[in-house]
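TEACHING EXERCISE
Course module: macromolecular assemblies
Task: Read the component lines below, then compare them to the predicted structure of the full complex.
Student: A.B.
Group: 4
Components provided:
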Amino acid sequence: MMSDVSLSIDGKRVSVQKGTNILGAAKSIGVNIPHLCFEERLSPISACRLCLVEVEGMESLVAACSYPVAEGMIVKTNSARVKEARRVVLELILSDHPLDCLTCEKSGSCQLENYAYELEILSSRFKGEKSHYPLDKSNPFIERDPDKCILCGRCVAVCGEVQMCFVLDFAQRGFKTRMSTGLDRLLPKTSCTFCGSCISVCPVGALTEKERRFKGREWELEKVSTICPYCGCGCAITLNIKNGRIVKITSDPEGYVNEGWLCSKGKFGFDFIHSPDRLKYPLVKKGGELKEVSWDEALGFVAEKLKKIKEKYGSESIAGLSSAKCSNEENYLFQKFMRAVLGTNNVDHCARLCHASTVAGLARAFGSGAMTNSMAEIKNADCILITGSNTSETHPIIALKIKEALRKNGARLIVVDPRKIEMTKFSHLWLRQKPGTDVALFNGMMNVIISEGLHDKEFILKRTQGFEKLKEMLHQYTPDYVEGISGVPAHSIISAARMYSKADRASIIFAMGITQHTTGTDNVLSLANLAMLTGNVGKESSGVNPLRGQNNVQGACDMGALPNVYPGYQSVSEERIREKFEQMWRVDLPQKVGLTVVEMIHAAEEGKLKAMYIMGENPFLSDPNSNLTRRALEKLDFLVVQDIFPTETSEYADVILPAASFAEKEGTFTNTERRVQRVRRALEVPGQAKADWEIISDLAVRLGYPMKYSSPARIMDEIASLTPIYGGITYERLDKRGLQWPCPNRDHPGTKFLHQGRFTRGLGKFHPTPYREAVELPDEEYPFILSTGRVLFHWHTGTMTRRVKGLEEIYPQNLVEIHPLDAQKLSLKDADLARVISRRGKVVIRVKVTDISPPGVVFMSFHFKEAAANLLTIDALDPVAKIPELKVCAVRIEKCTV
Amino acid sequence: MNKNVNKGVNKELLKELVEKYKNESGALIPILQEIQESFGYLPEETLIFVSDEMDIPLGRIWGVVTFYSQFYLSPRGRNIIRLCRGTACHVRGGKRLLEKVERVLGIKRGETTPDFEFTLETVRCLGTCFLAPVIMINHDYFGRVTPGKVENILQQYIP
Ligand code: SF4
Ligand code: SF4
Ligand code: SF4
Ligand code: FES
Ligand code: FES
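Instructor-supplied answer key:
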């Protein structure tokens, strides 16, 4: 620990850690020294000179933001000399400032304005030329007004050191100096990701949110803090509202998860809430047409239909899809509704499509299927292995933590991915395996680790079982053999093995590139093997970390929106547990494990399933083999869809129920690091929409099951009473930072990282994972591998992001990425139209020629209904987790001539 | 002067230049100087190439090339005219002289004629005030220039 230093500031004594700067020391006793370029989260820039203070014994004034404290120092922050120096600095800045505070969007929160007021500056004594540069409104998100720029350098620093995008820098010199981009290009022509971080640090009105223009003054905005509805990072956001409309989104720098940084979706992706397309009234199909009806009629109708179907065909003929977008409370109620009211375990949700194999694999190896570490711990890892995660696009805030580890701690980065994702720019090693050969590759790394004696013998002995079998299986996976399978050079496999195993705190980060395979569970198991083999799990900053996709996919799983478990992963097949729930819910519960997502679709197509209740999901676009999904949905006797928008799936619905968006209800989301966080109501619902939890309870009551809660907080109380890992969670306790489960009781502080000293299942278990090929490999007729995934600017099936004007403008259509060599063979150019054909369907789509994917592999996202990737994908399943193989199928590509 | 002007970017040459410095740190300025030496100025595509190859953000390179006045971002003429706008020359009619040169060449100061024959620049003081007003073309000085002499002087540089 660093020692303390004491000093005096304005006559007050203060003790702070050695190395603290004067500004920080002053802040700790409530003395605020004016500053413009300094920003706590960035390294000191020391450009503005506003923070000058007097230090006794020093001839000239010093910059408080960078000057370190020393023992016995006597500092004056408000002497006449200091005040005059400050005035000069401010007046110089003001002499080249437009002063159009009348209509400037920053007015009210502008630091320049505030300091001028504080120092009572009426006008500048310096008269001179003022700069005039054009306003940059080239993009839908950020408005740049170079004339208002005070050259503090914060935006340059955040873009470079935090985001590592390096878009902004200073150009020219002297009076002409200004903040600029390379070649003075407009932002869309640069590598800008529109994260908006530069806006959030700009102390003046030089960078503002374009959409907020003239929508409300800073002091009129009502602020509600809540959680971003997009990805599993679970960033804290603040909705800034005027007259019931969101004007802009900001984020509190104190926010624990994201420290005030956001990505383009969290920062700018809110238009959808106010979209005119929102569902506002319950709709019931009458005579082939959807008609607006009252809630009473709609719910009465649903209750009656479900009752009849249950009586006629039995409970097993009904299935429900819960939602990773909805709150914990709603997922809890949904599965309770399916189990206790309808009497079936046929409940699942889209986690099946993303991380079922993680849950299955990690539960077998460790006993718990969640991220072992916290996001913040990534910063202190000394080796990070990313595989099957395009982290900077799909989990941008986690990518920031990785970048911080690289920058601040010199961590080593290994990327294992067939695609040249952005993170490969920062990696020390990039292993580009053939899609679907992951298991072989990791086996190869372990083979090297064992043969070089780099494994952690003590850890293996004390904490694990099954090592001998693993070792035997690994024998054949020599680097040369694996090179033959995976295409990764043997020497890279050896280097990666050494780099990973020699680190003190190695962390594995993975996502759908690992899980969405017929070998998904094996892929996950092989990562678990790798971590245990080297003792890299169960300690701070080191473990196996699946990145969960949706805002609340972790929570939906925790809440038991799964066919085999109740909340808290308590098995439905275990009698003792079933009895507990039967007692609490006061009904008999079904014993049979229910159907999974893809099994439901198959059962519906075969006519075995008669009714489905789908809450906040769009299986038509998200599930593999859309043509099959369509046939299945058509075949149902009765389909209820509850959502905030009409979707491709609701086309087939008999009843559509309008739901509230995240901004219109109370609840909790659990992010990817197991942190349960509060979501707060900020807006009125459109029309007669209702929160999902209200709809479900209403319906339950109509079906004769008492389900009444005064608020979601009471639902959480019930969850806590039944779910040991959520045992200590209450709304009061969640208020500031949320809580990370397991949190077994009200005094428990929550758990930062899992498996410390002991795995959840006792001993960690090695599972031998021999390599198996993907189900459908390219052949003569279908010579390319198609891989699917996400892009930065869109989300899931696009229901939300495609209604955000700016995101749609920046990324308006689906593209298929083709390697230049393949493009040449097919005589395709950028922006040409091509037909991509698989054994199951075909889509017409624009071509993007790029070397991001290797030759022989093409990639497209699944966000767009006009070119829906899942018309092509295969519905082959992983035998254990039943997750479909969305990352590998065979396609053929033809040039479109029309 | 500037023999390669307007001949487009010779990719091979560019590659060679960058290759030479690729693994040295702090090599940005020397590289840019060499590129300018070879191409007469710094065409955009050369900056993009350097950024990609050397892994230096384009914004940073842009900061450097706009900071130093030695770097040129647009093609320059075969002949560089430096017209003095210092005090001594000003008093002796430097302004009228500038207007005349601008009119004859049909360009403003800082610009280059479309045929890339002349680039017109103004400078603070050429250090030969006793000859004011002064024009310098390439390495030749012309003193006591009146607007009437401008055409004749320029004529000497047209091949
Ligand atoms: S939006 Fe983000 S990436 Fe773009 S310039 Fe600002 S900080 Fe850089
Ligand atoms: S744009 Fe804002 S943050 Fe960037 S240098 Fe100018 S004043 Fe500072
Ligand atoms: S990183 Fe994820 S949670 Fe954070 S702002 Fe972006 S989409 Fe939202
Ligand atoms: S805040 Fe210290 S120099 Fe700008
Ligand atoms: S002022 Fe023109 S040469 Fe000195």
